[in-house]
Amino acid sequence: MDKKRVIVVGGGITGLSAAYYLQKEAAQKSLPIEVLLIEASDRVGGVIQTVKKDGFVIEKGPDSIIARKTSGIQLIEELGLKDKVISNTAGKSYILVKGKLHTMPEGSFMGIPTRVTPFAVSGLFSPLGKLRAAADFVLPKGAPQTDQSLGGFFRRRLGNEVVENLIEPLLAGIYAGDIDNLSLMSLFPNFYEMEQEHRSLVVGLKKTMPKPPKPAGGAKKQPARKGMFISLTTGLEEIVIQLEKRLAGSIVKGTGVTEIAQHNDGYQVTLANGSVEMADSVIVATDHFHAQQMLSKYSFMDVFKAMPATSVANVAMAFPKSAIKKDIDGSGFVVSRNSDFRITACTWTHKKWPGSTPEGMALLRCYVGKPDDQAAVNMSDAEIVKLVLTDLNKTMNITEEPLFHVITRWNKSMPQYTVGHKERMAKVKSSLAAELPGVYLAGSSFEGVGIPDCISQGKGAVSKVLDFLQQ
Ligand SMILES: Cc1cc2nc3c(=O)[nH]c(=O)nc-3n(C[C@H](O)[C@H](O)[C@H](O)COP(=O)(O)OP(=O)(O)OC[C@H]3O[C@@H](n4cnc5c(N)ncnc54)[C@H](O)[C@@H]3O)c2cc1C
Asked: What distance in Å separates the CA atoms of residue 12 and residue 287, rounded to the nearest whole number?
């Protein structure tokens, strides 16, 4: 077999994982395959960025990886980082509704109850709201549909109050979008299947959720629980650093791909600096806007022009603990739309990840940029700090200015899988296979936004490339 060349476009976690697993497979199976990763900016990692300052470990982008999806921990272990893995402290978390903090009802999963009592006693809902949520037990299942909005689905099953005071703030915190536009089938197809099979979501979840382990020896007091998320003592960027080391000599940084075009039996990849690289197969691991631009000759890619992405700003602020007069036991809160707040969430990072913060200090990490308040993202740093402190002071009574702040604006970095996304993706993939065989899309704009989803997509693209090259 002649030596084949694979170009990976985009050096976020998706592209890095793809290049790493491809290089690994090629080495293990002695395949004559060469990998080249091209990254537009002067660093790899994409939205994964950690800064270390005065003993604080500050995540400018993602701060955690869900442990349940194993591709994250698998990659971390392969990179020799097992000793650095930490789990979040599973403290209380809160929802701010109409200006008041409420604890998350125990036993809820993405806001859906699996236990009745914590919901029945929660101050989050009115008696009528609770009654409406209980209708989930008796309501018929919805008619089979190819897709529907997350908001519409949950409103139908559990009522507006549970959606507005619990589900919406949690999901908006993850997807930074309007749940009445987001796609159930792209984000939570399991909930649709649950309804179709069990009718009631609460019953379906109860039946399918793994039970939490019982305390050993019948002990009444449970030991401190580990959370559902992992990170690394040195921050998530450590994964990027290790991947880059392993890909040394195979990465071009500082110039992006402007065009991918068919050429003879392969592809000609043109870079912004004017150089041209040839490839037998290409993995496009950028956001959908850039993917569309580099493949703009192909009308089937036009669908991505209309795919929205929202912006958020991440605001980390360091304080001496003594500055926070009203300390709250827990790891943070998300904000419901019906609250008069402009921040959407706040993590008490020093409590969620105690190792991230020096003794005696507090690290608060907030987000601004609701879907209907995108202007907040582009305010000046001073204005953003003022806005965040004003909001925090409504609940926490902070008496001093932060020792320092780190503000990161993520413009159009939260891709929105709106209703119909899955079907649109299926069409794009089949057009790609027909018109550009050997070119694959992977990454947060396409089939899952979480870090483990992105790693899995990178890995999945590698399998497709190997099948294609071996045809
Ligand atoms: C603020 C924020 C917080 C998040 N929090 C979490 C979290 O806690 N946990 C979690 O699991 N997920 C979280 N996510 C989601 C997750 O981090 C991302 O979905 C994931 O890291 C995206 O990886 P990616 O490689 O697909 O894309 P990106 O990281 O966006 O990387 C794409 C890369 O492509 C490059 N590129 C663009 N155009 C070109 C071009 N023409 N040529 C070459 N290169 C190009 C870009 O410069 C970039 O480096 C968060 C996302 C954001 C924005």
From this structure: 10
- State the helix-helix crossing angle for 237-246 and 13-28, rounded to 10 degrees: 40
Return the ligand 1 atom nearest residue 453 CA: 11
Element housing 334 (H / E): strand 332-335
| Nearest Cα to Cα of residue 46 among 357, 408, 463 | 408
Residue spans of alpha helices (H) in 394-450 = 421-435
Rounded Cα–Cα distance for residues 147 and 326 (Å)? 45
Please report, for residues 11, 347, 437, the alpha-carbon distance to residue 240 in angstroms, rounded to integers and kept in the order given: 9, 23, 29
Phi and psi at 182, nearest 5°, equal -75, 150
Pocket of ligand 1 (CB under 6 A): 9-15, 38-41, 46-48, 61-65, 256-257, 285-287, 290, 294, 312, 314, 410, 413-414, 443-444, 449-451, 454
Can you give the pTM of this predicted structure? 0.96
Write the pLDDT tens digit of every residue in 30-74. 999 999 999 999 999 999 999 999 999 999 999 999 999 999 999
118 neighbors 161 (Cβ within 8 angstroms): no
Is residue 407 a contact partner of residue 57, using CB atoms and an 8 Å limit?
Answer: no
Structure tokens at 441: 């899309």
Query: Which atom of ligand 1 is the closest one to the Cα of 43?
Result: 49
Q: Rounded to the nearest 5°, which phi and psi values hold at 239?
A: -60, -45
Largest Cα–Cα distance of the chain, in whole Å?
A: 71
Which helix (H) or strand (E) segment holds residue 366: the answer is strand 361-368
Interior CA angle at 171 toward 382 and 238, to 5°? 65
- With the most atoms of ligand 1 within 8 angstroms of its CB, the residue from 16, 59, 240, 286 to mutate is 286
| Residue 220 pLDDT greater than 60, yes or no | no
Burial string for 423-448 (b: 16+ CB within 10 Å, else e) reads ebbeebbeebeeebebbbbbbbbbbb
Cβ burial, residue 144 (10 Å; 0-12/13-18/19+)? exposed
CB crowding 36-63: b at 16 or more within 10 Å, else e: bbbbbeeebbbbbbbeeeeebbbbbbbb
Residue 36 to residue 254: CA distance in whole angstroms? 14
Whole-number Å distance between alpha carbons of 22 and 72: 17
pLDDT (0 to 100) of residue 459: 98
Between 463 and 340, name the one with better pLDDT. 463
Give the CA distances from residue 265 to residues 219, 271, 279, 280, 292, in Å, rounded to whole numbers and listed in that order: 67, 20, 9, 7, 22
Q: What DSSP character marks residue 212?
A: P
Measured CA to CA in angstroms, residue 138 lies from 113, 141, 273 at distances of: 15, 9, 63
